[in-house]
Amino acid sequence: xxxxxxxxxxxGVHKEALRTWVRKAExxxxxxxxxxxxxxxxxxxxxxxxxxxxxxILRSATAFFAKAEFDRRLK
Length: 75
What we know:
Blueprint: H1 2-11, H2 15-29, H3 37-74
């Protein structure tokens, strides 16, 4: 509390406001659940593969319908 009081006086911020900010910052730093980096990477890689497949399907469908529209206009 001594550091908070000293910094509050130096900055002109009320000590309770500063104390609240410090507590919030400390709470934000603590993860609420353990982070499994490998599982997260696997999940993101799977999602990336699925998105790439979806994009390829959409590209193929776009090309197919564009050709069909072009052929229809030529008739």
